[in-house]
Design brief:
CATH topology of the largest domain: Ribosomal Protein S5, domain 2
Strand content: 15-25%
Distance between the termini: 27 Å
Structural class: alpha+beta
CATH architecture of the largest domain: 2-Layer Sandwich
Number of helices: 9
Amino acid sequence: MSEVRHATVRVPATTANLGPGFDAFGLALAHHLVVRSRPRRDDRPRVTTTGDGADEVATGDDNLVWRSLVTFCEAYDRGVPDVRLEVANDVPLERGLGSSSAAIVAGLVLGREVTGHPVGDRDLVRLADRIEGHPDNVAPALFGGLVACATDDAGRLVVRRRNPAPHLRPIVLVPATRQATQQARGVLPERLDRDDVVVQAARAGHVLGALVGAWPVDPQAAGDRLHEPPRLRVMPASGAVVAGLRAGGVHAWLSGAGPSVAGLLDGAAPAGRALAGRVAAEHGFTVHDLRVDLAGALVCPDDGCALSGMATTCAQCPRQRI
């Protein structure tokens, strides 16, 4: 095997669904998972992690970032490099903010970089979708910005990306409790009746138009009929937060499978932030004021800079996070 070109990848957190876009809409957020490949010449663990979940995530070959790197190599018949991974994580685990998707994308992107095997982002997101099982988190984690996903008549994943309207500012309200995605999927209904399908489709169109700035959102016409009602029945605090924000005019949704709640504020309207603070304090949530991550997965080789194209570092260099 040729010498490994070590690199660092930075992947954003994500919030999925955005209301009625179940398993289809996602938004990248400026909380990050950073992973750096390093030579493995000693008996140190395969993966070392600092930050959120540092004492919980696997340190051996069962680590999700490493398993995703191996999956890339196997999918494209590349030899698996014997490297170790240094991880710095800001993405809360099991809170509905795409921690597993960030790990999957980090492993795939790093696998592409260290093997030097040219694979387009379109193929990479399809591989990530096969690992994760649905694309609404992995797609924005890879591409950044606002992403809408669909399946064409041949069963192929179609992804479209846009920058959201610039006046929209994301917030995330995070509880201390966790929620595993697999458990949250267990409460979903097997089917919807026709009236709910019609409402769901109409609301998805309304929300997508609002997110790209075509018209203002109506928070009371931006909720979900498929996953939110059953999930919020078993997450009453999250349900109260969603209801409180919507009643105050904020477009809010259960982020992914929960229990975090995300929302979009009009940057020119500080009343929304004050409302979020009151609702969060009442129900024991913490408010995070965030930005939309427009870059997506950013990878920098050790011998250069992905942004400047030079053999230097810059202010955005993810290596400085490790």
